[in-house]
Every structure is written in C-alpha cells, then in structure tokens.
Design brief:
- The structure holds three protein chains of three kinds.
- Helix content of chain A is 41%, strand content 8%.
- The longest helix of chain A has 16 residues.
- Chain B has four helices and eleven strands, in the order ββααββαββββαβββ.
- In chain B, the strands form four sheets. Chain B has a five-stranded mixed β-sheet.
- In chain B, strand 5 and strand 6 form a beta hairpin.
- In chain B, 38% of the residues are buried.
- Chain C is α+β, with helices and mostly antiparallel strands.
- The longest helix of chain C is centred in the first third of the chain and has 29 residues.
- The N terminus of chain C is likely disordered.
- Chains in contact: A-B, A-C, B-C.
- Chains A and C meet through strand 1 and helix 3 of A and helix 2, helix 5, helix 6 and helix 18 of C.
Chain lengths: 186, 270, 458
C-alpha cells in the first residue's frame, strides 16, 4: 500500500481510503493471543453458533507476520508481557489490538504482583472489551466496532491529520468526576 | 504442650461448638483436662490460659494503623492455639498405618519418634510431622512397605507461618495409596534462617516440579533436587511471592475520582 | 531472600569437566548457551538444534513453552517451561473471605471451573465440620453441574485436539455440542464459564423454572451429536495414524510419575475417585468407569468420549432425582446449609431493574428479623469463621485428581489455599512420553494430556 500513502489528499485519496478500508475490514486475520478463560470464549466464537467465519476471521493466522488483529484474550502475566510485545512487534502494519476481557483491559479481578494491570501498558489497544469472560456476542460486537474503525481509517496525510484530531478530542474531554446534586463529591 | 505452635486446634475462642456440632468427625479431643489433677483445667475460666503464652496471630483491623478505631476491635489479640498431638488410638486406618510405619522404620534402625515429631488426627485426616533429616527414609518406607504402599505422590506445597520463630516454613506433602485406598499428609517444618529440606525427587520423581514451585513461592531449598530453579515466576524475579511478608502488590483502582486501595490495604475486620 | 542463596554467575559460562563441557545457566541466558554450544561444536551430530516452541503457539494448548533439542526430526530432549499464566490466585485468596475465594479458585483451571469450586468447597466444609449437613438437593445439583462441566471440558479438549492436527471440522463439531452444554450451564448457573456457583455450604441458587425441561431436551439431542463426533473421528485413518501408538505411557510409568485421570485409566487401571473415595453422594449413582489398556493418545481419546456418555448418564439420574423431589421451595428443600452462621443468606431474583436480592428476602431482613439482618450483614461483609486446621479434599476432575489443600487459622479468610492441579503434575511426564519420538508427535501427545495452563500456573 505504498503508492496510496504518497498520494496527495483530495478526492482521489478519499476514494482510495474507502476502498482500502472496505477491503481491510472484510478479512481481518486474527493472531489469537489466547491466554486464559477468554480464549475459551474466543474458541466458542469460532464455533458454528457464533461464527467468526462470516467475517473472514476463522483463519487465525498463527504466525504474527500475516496477522492483522491481535485479540489479547486473557490475563497477561509479568512473564508473558515481553512475549506479547514481541508478537505485537512482529505483526506488520496495519495492525489492531482488541483487549478481550477485564484482565487484558485493566488487570481484572487480579490486582496483584503477577498480572500486568491492563495490556495497554504493553501494546496500544484499539478496542477494550469488558467481561469475565465476555460472551461471544460481546466479542462479535467489539469486532464490528473495530470494523467500523478500520473502514474509517484514513491514509497518508489524511491519516496524520486524523490522528492529531482524535488526540486533541481525547485530551480536551473532561475527566469523569461525578458530583452529586447537592455538591458533595462521591 | 508448649513449644512451637501449629495451626491445628480443636478448641478455640471463636465459634467453637456451633458449626461442628453433630459433625461426626474423627477428630480426637486434646489432652487438656485429661488428668484428674487438672480437674478444673477445663472450666471455662481456665480454658485457653495456655494460649496466652502463644504468639499473637491476628489483631483485628488488619492493615489499618493509627486511625480512630470505631469498630471496637482495636484491642483484639488472638493468640495461636497450641499444637495438637493426638493420643492413640487414632481411629480408622491411622493406627495400622502408624504401626506399619513404626515397624518399617525400626527395621531400618530408626525409632518412630526419631522420625516423627508429632501425629495429628484432625477432621478425618492424618498428618505426620516429620523431622527433616528423616524425611527421605520415611518417604521410602511409605512407598515401599507392602502394608503402606503410598505409590502416588500428590504434591508438596509450602505454608509460611510468620510468627512461629524457628519453624516458619512448612512443607506439606500429600501421598495417596491406590493399593489400600488411603491418604496421608507429611509436614516438615524448617526455620527461615536455614530453609533446607532433603529433596524427594529420588523417591518420587514427580515431586520435581512441586519442589521447584515451593522454592519459587516460599524459598524452601530442597537439597538434592536436580534443577531447583524458578518455575512460575520469571527467572530473574526477586523474592518469594507467597510468603506472608511479601506484599500482594496491587495498585489502587481509580474510577470517577474515587480511589479504591488494593485488597491488602483495605480495612478488614477479622 | 534470594540474595542470601549463592547463585551461579549471571550469563552462561562453560568449564571443562571429566565427561565434556559443563555450561552453567542461571536464567535469561538461553541465547548465550546455545551460541556457546554451537560454537564449541561438541554435539555429536551436526544436525542437533535447539528449538523453542514458544508460549505463543497454536498447538501447545495454551501458553506452554517447550524447549526442544532436535536431531533431525527426532526429539532428543523436551523441557516444558511454564509460568506464563501465573496469576497468584492462591495468594489472592488469602485476602478475600472464604466465599469470595470461590470466585478466584474457579478461574484456576478454566475449562473445569466447577471442579475447582467443588474441591475448594469440600475442603472448607471439612474444616467447618458440616460435610454431612449439606442439603441433599445441593449435593444432587453439584453432581449435575459437575458432570455437565465434565462434558464441556472433554469437548474443550477434543475439539482443539482436532484443530491442532489441522482438522478444523472436528473443532467446529466439538464446539457445536459444547455450545449446547454451555447453554445449559448458563441456564442453571447464570454464566457460561467461571460460575462461582458452588459455595461452601451448598450452591448459590436453586435450579430456575424450566431447567429440568431444558436439561432433558439436551439429553435427547446430545447422543446424536456425540455420535456425529464418533463417526467423524473414531475410524478416521489420519486421526488414528497420528494418535495410535503415540505418547505411550504404561502403568509403571504412570505410577512413577504420579499420573491420574484418563491417562491412568488408559493403562488399564480403573482408578476413579468417584468410585474409590466418593464425595457429594457419588456412591449412589449408577455409572461405569471407562478404561482400556491402549496406553496411547488414541486410547485416552476413547476414554474421554466414553466419559462424556457416562456423564450424560449420571446427569440423567440427577435430573430424575430432582424431579422426584418436586419443587417444595427453599424452606422445605434448601440448596444452602441451614446454618445462620455459615449459609449464604441472600436469595436472588430477577426484578425490573435486574438481578438482585429477592423482595421476600429484603422484607424478611428489613422488616421481620433483626437477627437475620445482622447475619446477612456479617456474612456478606466479614464472612463466616472457619475453625483452625487444615484439610485436603480431592475430586475426580476431567484431567485427573484435583485437590484443594486449605489451611485456616480460625479467621474469616483462608490462611493458605493450594490447588493441586492435575495438569501441573502431568506436564512433568511430557519428557517421558515424547523423547525419542518425532516433533510432530509432540502435538497429539500434549493434546492427549489435555493440560490447561490456567491450572498449571494458577
């Protein structure tokens, strides 16, 4: 996809973005990083009832070189974190990460010495999926949201602009402080 | 009996009779109050006196210091119960087992109490407290003697009693006899300053990983183990995580402006 | 503490010894060791290479790392390295109450969560001394959900077995049947996995209305689906070729290595804790223990399939028993022990705003009984106290003997909980099963052991 990255922004680039986004979203190959209990729900999602194959995702590429999406399913221990980072680094761009389950998103119920409190300490995460474990339907929902994100991803100069815009939006979002109606802090 | 404390007790100051009434267990009553000379030893006022000499186990309001104590539990001091030494007869198959082990050890030139410090029969289970020097001989006898035949090694794990100076680390072995359908537990106590126990890998090959795990989590060194290295924690980890003086290591959880401390720092009413 | 123990110097070094070079390894220096060994060229055959079948691998049944020394295609040495999923579950349980401990131990071996819970709860009940006061309805429900979990666990082992051999149809067919069993577990316990349903004193909730019909419907369709799996796999020449004669472990080896479960039963010894040391009322159920003497991966597969059928048989008996008891309600036929100081107080029900304590329960504690309110409060915040002592309770899990060693110091929190997991124990026998065989045989060998890394690492 090198040529498209070099195109100047304009109508041509927008059309290419649409086609590229559509193509990328249609067959995302997961590099399943199935670690613990969430991996079992991932395994069930690949089964006939909740079918990952309808998204073209049943071909879990076992080699990270050919994978697009890393679904970190399960608790990441301190010993496993460097391995996780190495697999992420071995994936080629464009790549996305879904942190499946609360253990991957935030350390979950295991707030202790052995578990990395959120896989975003190690790799950048696109979609956080809570649940212990999340149902297959929830995983499919997160994949659809990811597809939405992939389809709207821009290329080249537009991508740089998109990244800056998204970052500014997040920085200016107010923090989640909740004040009770009578003014006292919760 | 005074001496280093263990966790087993059949009487105590908290909920002694309620949940255990009508339970029909094999637990033997302790020796207290057995002799007629101490006839008033089992009066409620006198019960538990010997515990005042035992180390303090819990103080209530775990982890919270220096705050105004509104719970009323600030002055609670719970002492550890005296260790049980069950008298004969033990009941069930335990007597047979102890006799077979005794004669087996005798054949090897050892007395029963040379090897076994204490026998505890509690809640239908037999625990032999073995002296660490004799552990290998006891294990070989348990495995090979036809009346014993404890072929299956279930596992060894550690327990860390922080307050028991001189006997902090306990290694607990569980054995299963398929031939006789029996179980037995061996317990070896070692001090923190000298945490060496002979390895049982020569007797039971499958104790290999269990001993590595016990070393990893408690720091008990098994002499004679072919490769005593870390197994669960990363190779270069410092410290032994499941010891009581090792922190749980959580981080405070922040959500919408509130900060919840990690589990080990929360208030706890015990 | 580690500093007071003398270590080898960091980094691999070598020294001359009587029978060849000695390499001292102290951790995180595997690359240096391999480089030094290759440089020294003191391997007999030039073909010997050291390969890392790393923690991220599609076929190692989870995050298991195998360090293989290969001579061509033959495995000369295999060393499993574990710990990549270590969660500190046992230490975490020391900071929670006895009932909360169930939610932790259930996530140890995540393919058989209800067995973890049962082992732990049996040990706690033994410490409490209430083993014979557990209500019978609770015992029947425990057996029912455990056997359903056995079905899902075996399928969760057989389906990846097929996938790892490259047969994705076995995987989808296994997932298909497993999905129905999971639906059933969801109907009964509320969750598909990690249920936290079996608690000290009984079970959390009674069977919901419609559960018995749902279970019976599953029992009617399951045999056909199971037969589909049999037709697909049993006589499949590729499956047989890859599994027959592979991972041979006979009775002597199993006894030396302390192996239990389907692996031991594939050597001809019918050892099953449900028959020899029954718990939860298993002595009153009519079932067989599948056994064969093939000692190989194929034999273990056959035993697992047969155990699924036996589990369905037991589950049918459980359903009949519960149906025979009728539905007299929680006061006449409770599922939690009737002891105000121990039994979990709250009854949950589904209201307009979700699942919560049932209105009757709230009316009772708020309006009718101060004592009940106090018990409710104390049991949920503090938990019950367990008299000091230690107990070891073992159950026959789908993988072998799963046991919980629980130590109490008299308080409301466990002093120490150790889960003796069968997968941890059995992984030690990988070397005995695979050395001398081919690399490709490692996969079915490990699949036949069916290790679950959550239980291995806890």
């Amino acid at each position: 996809m090198g040529l498209e990255e070099k195109l100047p922004s304009g109508v041509l680039l927008t059309s290419v973005e649409k086609v590229a986004g559509w193509a990328r979203a249609r067959s995302v190959w997961p590099a399943t990083f199935g670690l613990a209990c969430c991996a079992i729900e991932l395994f069930q999602t690949g089964g006939p009832k909740h079918d990952l194959a309808r998204f073209g995702m049943e071909r879990a590429s076992n080699t990270p070189r050919q994978a697009d999406l890393m679904i970190v399913a399960g608790r990441v221990s301190q010993k496993m974190a460097p391995v996780l980072r190495q697999i992420y680094d071995q994936m080629s761009d464009p790549k996305w990460v879904i942190s499946m389950g609360v253990c991957a998103s935030s350390g979950g119920m295991f707030n202790n010495y052995a578990i990395v409190q959120g896989v975003d300490h190690v790799v950048p995460v696109d979609i956080y999926l809570p649940g212990c474990p999340p149902r297959p339907e929830m995983l499919l929902d997160s994949i659809l949201k990811l597809h939405d994100k992939i389809m709207n991803m821009k290329l080249g100069k537009d991508r740089d602009r998109q990244i800056t815009e998204l970052e500014e939006a997040r920085l200016s979002r107010p923090p989640l402080h909740v004040a009770s109606p009578r003014g006292s802090r919760l | 009996m005074s001496g280093p404390a263990g966790p087993e007790e059949t009487h105590g100051s908290e909920a002694p009779q309620g949940p255990r009434a009508g339970s029909g267990q094999q637990a033997e009553p302790p020796a207290a109050g057995a002799s007629p000379a101490e006839a008033d030893g089992d009066l409620p006022a006198r019960l538990g006196e010997e515990r005042l000499n035992a180390p303090v186990v819990r103080m209530g309001l775990f982890g919270v210091q220096g705050t105004p104590d509104t719970s009323g539990y600030g002055l609670l001091r719970v002492h550890r119960a005296a260790p049980i030494d069950s008298p004969r007869p033990y009941g069930s198959y335990f007597d047979e087992l102890a006799d077979a082990l005794g004669s087996g050890l005798q054949a090897a030139g050892l007395g029963f109490s040379d090897a076994i410090e204490r026998v505890v029969v509690d809640r239908g289970e037999l625990t032999l407290h073995v002296r660490r020097e004799r552990l290998t001989e006891v294990a070989v006898k348990l495995r090979d003697d036809p009346a014993l035949r404890f072929e299956l090694f279930s596992g060894v794990s550690g327990v860390h009693y922080l307050e028991d100076t001189g006997r902090e680390l306990h290694a607990v072995y569980h054995l299963l006899s398929i031939t006789h359908n029996r179980r037995v537990r061996l317990e070896v106590s070692v001090p923190d300053a000298d945490p060496h126990i002979p390895s049982l890998t020569g007797v039971y090959p499958s104790s290999n990983w269990h001993e590595r795990e016990t070393w990893d989590f408690f720091g008990i060194i098994f002499d004679g183990h072919p490769a005593l290295t870390r197994i669960e924690m990363p190779d270069d980890w410092r410290g032994h995580p499941q010891r009581k003086d090792y922190p749980l290591g959580g981080i405070p959880v922040e959500y919408r402006g509130a900060k919840i401390p990690p589990p080990e720092e929360r208030r706890h009413y015990s | 503490m580690t500093d007071s123990v003398p270590h080898a110097p960091a980094g691999a070094s070598d020294a001359e010894a009587a029978e060849g070079r000695v390499y001292t390894v102290s951790g995180e220096d595997w690359d240096e060791l391999v480089a030094a060994a290759n440089e020294a060229r003191d391997f007999q055959s030039g073909e010997r290479i050291v390969v890392n079948m790393g923690p991220q691998h599609p076929s190692t049944h989870g995050v298991l790392r195998l360090v293989l020394t290969l001579e061509g295609e033959t495995v000369v040495e295999v060393r499993p390295a574990i710990g990549y999923l270590h969660t500190g579950i046992e230490k975490n349980m020391e900071y929670r109450t006895w009932t909360q401990g169930v939610t932790f131990c259930t996530r140890a071996d995540y393919l058989m969560p209800l067995f973890n819970e049962t082992a732990y709860c049996l040990a706690v009940e033994r410490l409490l001394g209430i083993e014979d006061r557990i209500p019978e309805r609770a015992q029947i429900i425990r057996v029912l959900v455990m056997e359903l979990n056995r079905v899902t666990s075996h399928l969760g082992g057989i389906a990846p077995m097929g996938l790892e051999l490259g047969a994705s149809t076995i995987y989808t067919q296994g997932a298909r049947l497993r999905e129905r069993a999971l639906d059933l577990l969801e109907l009964i316990t509320g969750l598909r996995m990690n249920h936290a349903y079996i608690r000290p004193g009984g079970v959390a909730q009674d069977l919901p209305p419609g559960a018995l019909e749902g279970i019976r419907a599953f029992m009617d369709t399951a045999p056909r689906l199971l037969q589909d799996l049999h037709t697909l796999i049993d006589a499949n020449p590729v499956f047989i070729g890859r599994n027959k004669g592979i991972a041979y472990l006979d009775l002597q080896a199993c006894m030396a290595l302390g192996v239990t479960g389907p692996i031991l039963r594939s050597t001809g010894l019918p050892w099953d804790l449900r028959k020899s040391q029954p718990y939860c009322g298993y002595e009153s159920y009519d079932f067989d223990v599948p056994v064969n003497d093939m000692c190989d991966a194929y034999g273990r597969y056959l035993i697992r399939m047969a155990e699924i059928e036996q589990s369905l048989k037991i589950a049918r008996q459980c359903v009949d028993r519960i149906a025979a008891r009728g539905a007299p309600g929680p006061s006449a036929d409770p599922v939690m022990i009737r002891d105000a100081k121990i039994g979990w107080p709250a009854q949950l029900s589904l209201g307009p705003d979700g699942l919560g304590p049932s209105p009757e329960h709230i009316a009772h504690i708020m309006g009718q009984s101060m004592e009940a309110l106090i018990h409710h409060f104390k049991l949920i915040t503090e938990g019950f106290r367990v008299p000091a002592g230690q107990a070891y309770a073992a159950v026959e899990s789908p993988r072998g003997e799963l046991a919980a060693h629980v130590v109490s110091d008299g308080g409301t929190r466990p002093y120490r909980v150790h889960l003796r997991d069968p997968s941890f124990h059995h992984l030690q026998s990988v070397a005995a099963m695979c050395e001398g065989g081919m690399v490709a045989d490692l996969i079915p060998a490990i699949a036949s052991l069916d290790p679950v890394m959550g239980g291995v690492d806890r």
